[in-house]
UniProtKB/TrEMBL annotation:
<dbReference type="Pfam" id="PF13324">
    <property type="entry name" value="GCIP_N"/>
</dbReference>
<keyword id="KW-0963">Cytoplasm</keyword>
<feature type="domain" description="Cyclin-D1-binding protein 1-like N-terminal">
    <location>
        <begin position="59"/>
        <end position="198"/>
    </location>
</feature>
<dbReference type="GO" id="GO:0005634">
    <property type="term" value="C:nucleus"/>
</dbReference>
<dbReference type="GO" id="GO:0005737">
    <property type="term" value="C:cytoplasm"/>
</dbReference>
<keyword id="KW-0131">Cell cycle</keyword>
<dbReference type="Pfam" id="PF20936">
    <property type="entry name" value="GCIP_C"/>
</dbReference>
<protein>
    <submittedName>
        <fullName>CCDB1 protein</fullName>
    </submittedName>
</protein>
<comment type="similarity">
    <text>Belongs to the CCNDBP1 family.</text>
</comment>
<keyword id="KW-0539">Nucleus</keyword>
<dbReference type="InterPro" id="IPR026907">
    <property type="entry name" value="GCIP-like"/>
</dbReference>
<feature type="domain" description="Cyclin-D1-binding protein 1-like C-terminal">
    <location>
        <begin position="210"/>
        <end position="303"/>
    </location>
</feature>
<dbReference type="InterPro" id="IPR049318">
    <property type="entry name" value="GCIP_C"/>
</dbReference>
<dbReference type="InterPro" id="IPR049317">
    <property type="entry name" value="GCIP-like_N"/>
</dbReference>
């Protein structure tokens, strides 16, 4: 990403000269984002033999330098005297070089190391670049001789983004395990929330007599009917099966997942991709289960849910993470999904 230089007039005299120097760092950083260089750029496939340990060492070194440059930049504009134009020119060049070097190392990571891993590194890289952009813009828009709360927050944001790079998974197995754990957390939360709603969601109008003319109590929107509760039980069973699927697949990925071949890396990515479809489908199912329950909507949501779960289990069974010793629970969970789906279909047949 070649630099495109420009100025920024802020204040007057020495302050304006310093701002013009600092302003030079803004356009190159903005261009990184506007060209989607980080989020959409192609990796350096096949340019040279890739070594994962060397990549992590280089990324760690460049992110450390980036964090240091953010600190230097913030300190230079935290108190008088204002940095000279020459000093600010040096600051801007150092910030630009640090960020571009950090982004360049990201491009070393080829897709062949795993799309799940690469996405996590890409997201972390984007956070660092955007954090530096925000810090630069905050300083440019603030009084030159005062340290603002926004500047403190922006500086801390860059530090935090840089620290997160050090905690990234080191290979695609760890990356996929992390992705699966995140999906499992979403499903756990949705299930716990729905179970709590069921416990708390007793009919609040049970002590009110039925309307003499209409024949039913008012405001059924706030509770489940008896028919709803029968359907609700099977839906909760399907949510529990989803939780168990994610938990078991997470376990075998940790125990048996490998990154020794392109096929193994690709299989891990596929498991992560399918899991990423399961968690939002659980949220959609949960929303359709709240009163007033739309039983047709529930039926449509569980059909989608069933497809994801069956695909997930099938792919797990046929991948390298599932040795013969693990096939028993795959079949058990497949049967559990079938059992709950058959009950849901029976309850909602009249809605079709």
């Amino acid at each position: 990403c070649a630099p495109c230089w420009g100025g920024s007039e802020v204040g007057a005299g020495a302050g304006a000269a310093a701002a013009r120097g600092l302003g030079r760092v803004g356009p190159p950083l903005r261009r990184l984002r506007s060209l989607s260089a980080v989020t959409e750029g192609e990796p350096g496939e096949g340019r040279e033999p890739f070594e994962l340990p060397r990549f992590w060492d280089a990324l760690g070194q460049t992110v450390k330098v980036t964090s240091q440059e953010a600190t230097k930049l913030s300190l230079a504009f935290s108190r008088p005297p204002v940095a000279s134009a020459e000093d600010c020119q040096k600051l801007s060049e150092d910030v630009q070089n640090a960020v571009l070097a950090f982004a360049a190392v990201y491009y070393w990571l080829p897709k062949g190391q795993g799309t799940t891993l690469r996405k996590m590194v890409r997201d972390a890289t984007t956070e660092v670049v955007e954090g530096m952009i925000q810090l630069t813009e905050t300083i440019l828009s603030a009084p030159l001789e005062s340290l603002t709360q926004e500047q403190l927050i922006s500086t801390g944001g860059v530090w935090e983004a840089c620290e997160q790079v050090s905690s990234l998974p080191r290979d695609n197995q760890a990356a996929v395990a992390s992705a699966l754990a995140a999906c499992l957390g979403v499903v756990k939360d949705a299930l716990e929330e729905m179970e709590h709603a069921v416990v708390e969601g007793q009919d609040p109008y049970s002590d009110i007599m039925e309307d003499e003319e209409l024949g039913f109590r008012g405001n059924r929107d706030t509770y489940w009917s008896e028919a709803d509760r029968k359907l609700l039980s099977s839906c909760l069973g399907l949510m529990k099966a989803s939780k168990a699927c994610l938990k078991k697949v997470l376990g075998v990925v940790k125990a048996y997942g490998k990154t020794d071949s392109p096929e193994q890396i690709s299989q891990l990515d596929d498991l992560a991709d399918i899991a990423n479809e399961i968690s939002p489908s659980i949220d959609e199912l949960a929303l359709s289960m709240y009163p007033p329950m739309n039983q047709l909507g529930v039926r449509l949501n569980v059909n989608t849910k069933e497809a994801f779960l069956m695909n997930f289990l099938h792919f797990c069974r046929t991948s390298h993470v599932c040795p013969p010793s693990e096939e028993g629970w795959v079949q058990f969970l497949t049967d559990a999904v079938d059992h709950n789906m058959n009950k849901i279909k029976n309850f909602t047949q009249g809605q079709l």
